[in-house]
Design goal:
Shape: globular
Largest sheet: 5 strands, mixed
Radius of gyration: 16 Å
Number of helices: 3
Distance between the termini: 51 Å
CATH topology of the domain at 31-137: OB fold (Dihydrolipoamide Acetyltransferase, E2P)
Order of helices and strands: HEEEEEHEEEEEEEH
Number of strands: 12
Length: 154
């Protein structure tokens, strides 16, 4: 019985969920360093349009990306009090600007389904899958893919 419990626990993941426009998305909470309000940034000349700028977070330089714009959903409305999800990326920290932070959802990886080709206007390539709760569909964001494409586009 104990081995079954351990196997079940391996398949459990906590998803930090957030809104990008009208789309509910999530990522493994272990990828999140912190979540904060949008703070003053310095513009980066000749950066792609979805790069909002860089900010100094307690001595660490963080590049902030408008995730909505990056995923083709249009700019995040800055008047609606958006949040920056700071994620750890090899060699640097990236801030993903999202419309709103939602709940932490405990999910079983075995219940993840393949992502649809288009989810709420976002290309499926940016997702590793979807997770259905009783009343919601959560797109599991492939953070590495978003950041990898980020590097290519610079």
């Amino acid at each position: 019985m104990e081995k079954q419990d351990q196997a079940a626990n391996k398949n459990l993941v906590e998803l930090a969920t957030f809104m990008i426009g009208d789309a509910l998305c999530g990522m493994d909470i272990l990828k999140v360093q912190e979540i904060n309000k949008l703070i003053e940034m310095t513009a980066v000349p000749q950066a792609p349009s979805y790069v909002l700028g860089i900010l100094n977070l307690r001595g660490q330089i963080v590049t902030s990306i408008d995730l909505g714009k990056k995923l083709g959903l249009g700019e995040t409305d800055l008047s609606l009090d958006p949040r920056n999800i700071i994620v750890n990326s090899p060699g640097e920290h990236i801030g993903l600007l999202v419309s709103k932070i939602s709940d932490v959802v405990q999910a079983n990886k075995e219940r993840f389904e393949p992502p649809p080709s288009n989810m709420g206007g976002i290309q499926g390539e940016f997702f590793t899958g979807v997770y259905k709760t009783e009343d919601k569909l959560i797109g599991i964001l492939d953070v590495e893919k978003v950041l990898r494409v980020e590097e290519i586009n610079q």
